[in-house]
């Protein structure tokens, strides 16, 4: 399984997306309410760049005469012909059992702490070179795509 760093969590804010190339595939990574999802950037209808489409919600089941809109930010609409897919599962809205887009696992990991070394020039009193180290931390989590 391939492991690819997509970026940091601040690069893909809630409601945002980032399209990346990984192992010869174009993949869209989405932040839906703080959880990251990834799907192939190709509509199964005619190969449109699906992940460049509009992210929206949908009308939910409701009693007659009522309209309930929900799942905001969870549905992607193909930019060419309007086919809609669930970002969370990759399944199409109109036929979820037969038409779907490949999805990939995404995790957020905290990078390991690092140490920076600074070489100090030797002084007249000391003939040896000193190396001073300083701890470095990265506060932002890394978004990892697993293929």
From TrEMBL:
Gene3D superfamilies: Rieske [2Fe-2S] iron-sulphur domain. Residues 3-115 form the Rieske domain. PROSITE patterns: RIESKE. The keyword Metal-binding applies. The keyword Metal-binding applies. Pfam families: Rieske. It comes from the Bacteria. Keywords: 2Fe-2S, Iron, Iron-sulfur, Metal-binding. SUPFAM superfamilies: ISP domain. This is Rieske (2Fe-2S) protein. It comes from Paenibacillus radicis (ex Xue et al. 2023).
């Amino acid at each position: 399984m391939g492991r690819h760093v997509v970026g940091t969590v601040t690069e893909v804010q809630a409601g945002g997306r980032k399209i990346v190339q990984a192992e010869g595939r174009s993949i869209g990574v989405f932040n839906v309410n703080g959880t990251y999802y990834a799907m192939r950037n190709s509509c199964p209808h005619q190969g449109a760049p699906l992940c460049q489409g509009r992210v929206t919600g949908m009308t939910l089941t409701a009693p007659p005469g009522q309209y309930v809109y929900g799942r905001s930010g969870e549905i992607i609409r193909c930019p060419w012909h309007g086919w809609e897919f669930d970002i969370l599962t990759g399944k199409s809205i109109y036929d979820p059992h037969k038409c779907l887009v490949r999805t990939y696992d995404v995790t957020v990991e905290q990078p390991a702490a690092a140490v920076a070394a600074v070489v100090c020039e030797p002084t007249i009193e000391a003939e040896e070179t000193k190396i001073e180290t300083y701890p470095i931390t990265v506060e932002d989590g890394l978004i990892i795509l697993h293929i």
